[in-house]
Write a structure and sequence with these properties.
Blueprint: E1 2-3, H1 4-12, H2 33-38, H3 42-55, H4 70-81, H5 119-133, H6 140-163, H7 181-191, E2 196-197, H8 203-212
Antiparallel strand pairs: 1-2
Length: 213
């Protein structure tokens, strides 16, 4: 079964931070440690988010004019990706890209807090908190990975959020990197609305299942 709308909700809703044993990674939600540490698969995540913002209302119903929501969708991506500015950070010039989108809290209250902590940033830190507080229910490998996250995630994610705003033809190395907000929006427009497809079984198999159950 393909349910991309459910996937969108999993990326923007409440995660169940729990684990029954050391093999249970429910606390990670739909993510893996590879996504958190190396940002693997992030292109799909942000494209799913862009499609949700562009083509769907909050209840999942389709919108009438998705192309008119490009600005809204980009702000939604910024809110989700937001990273708080360090209190020691040097104030940025007007022309510089920022990572703190706390100003979008009123428009996207569930995606970014007023202090600039976006959904993904909060999720990663809640994963670390869960692992630290429940060592008996998580593997030693997970504990080691969370130690690495604590040391370097915030800066790495800050750098990635800045990179995603750099124009495609910027005359720098970062301008050649593949992840950027405009690319996610372009992919979203090409792919269209999120799909929710129920599997269609052959009539003979349906009848067989009914007889067995």
């Amino acid at each position: 079964m393909l349910n991309e709308w459910k996937e969108f909700q999993d990326y923007t809703g409440v995660v169940n931070y729990t684990a029954r044993n050391k093999q249970d990674t429910t606390y990670l939600g739909r993510f893996t440690f590879d996504t958190i540490l190396n940002f693997e698969g992030l292109n799909r995540v942000l494209t799913i988010l862009a499609r949700g913002f562009l083509f769907h209302n909050e209840n999942g119903s389709p919108v009438k004019a998705p192309r008119e929501r490009i600005g809204y969708a980009k702000r939604g991506l910024c809110a989700w990706c937001s990273v708080p500015d360090s209190k020691k950070a040097t104030p940025r010039e007007a022309w510089q890209f920022g990572s703190d989108f706390g100003g979008l809290h009123s428009e996207f209250p569930s995606l970014v807090e007023e202090n600039g902590s976006g959904w993904f940033h909060r999720h990663v830190h809640r994963v670390v908190d869960f692992v630290r507080e429940n060592p008996e229910r998580v593997s030693s490998s997970a504990q080691k990975k969370c130690a690495v996250i604590e040391k370097g995630f915030d800066h790495a994610w800050w750098d990635k959020v800045i990179q995603m705003q750099i124009p495609l033809f910027a005359p720098t190395t970062k301008g050649q990197w593949g992840l950027r907000f405009d690319s996610f929006l372009a992919q979203a427009l090409e792919l269209g609305p999120l799909r929710t497809e129920e599997p269609i079984l052959p009539p003979a198999l349906v009848e067989q299942l009914r007889s067995l159950t």
